[in-house]
């Protein structure tokens, strides 16, 4: 008997169509609200749900592409004191992901917490930061660290 899964469980994920024995389908999956019988009415509902999910996915993807193009125009600049004893441009402090996210928020970009991997920039110069948006879409931000005199 074919069953459409409506709640994730060990037999499948939501919207999966599985083939199980009639007893298991009626006595466990359907009885416990984990699935519904595979019939014309339920297939129509399934197709509507899948279309809505696909449409929502495409909207989120387009939004992420637009956000990527805006983010890649951003250049962040920070001034830090330099440790002159090392002579290699290393700073006393570092710029962290948290500071970059705060700067982006000040610029009007409110991203998810883990959009940018953890970083600690502690050298004078230009740095390229890579972040991820929806569905693996990556963006790059230029960060410049200058010497604070």
Can you offer a commentary on this structure?
- By secondary structure, the protein is α+β, with helices and mostly antiparallel strands.
- 34% of the residues lie in helices and 30% in strands.
- The strands form 3 sheets. The protein has a 3-stranded antiparallel β-sheet, sandwiched between helices. A 3-stranded mixed β-sheet has the order 4-8-7. A two-stranded antiparallel ribbon has the order 5-6.
- Strand 7 and strand 8 form a beta hairpin.
- It is elongated, with a radius of gyration of 25 Å.
- It starts with a strand and ends with a strand.
- The model has no long low-confidence stretch (mean pLDDT 91).
- It comes from Mycoplasma testudineum.
Give a concise summary.
The chain is 34% helix and 30% strand.
User: In the CATH classification, which architecture of the largest domain applies?
Assistant: Roll
Rg of Cα set: 25 Å
**Percent strand:** 25-35%
Number of separate helices: 3
Shape: elongated
Classified in CATH, the superfamily of the largest domain is Ribosomal protein L9, C-terminal domain
Neighbour order of strands in the largest sheet: 2-1-3
Helix/strand/pairing category: alpha+beta
Helices and strands in order:
Blueprint: E1 2-5, E2 17-19, H1 22-30, E3 35-37, H2 40-71, E4 75-80, E5 90-96, H3 97-106, E6 120-123, E7 125-132, E8 138-147
Parallel strand pairs: 4-8
Antiparallel strand pairs: 1-2, 1-3, 5-6, 7-8
GO molecular function, one term: structural constituent of ribosome
Family: Belongs to the bacterial ribosomal protein bL9 family.
GO biological process, one term: translation
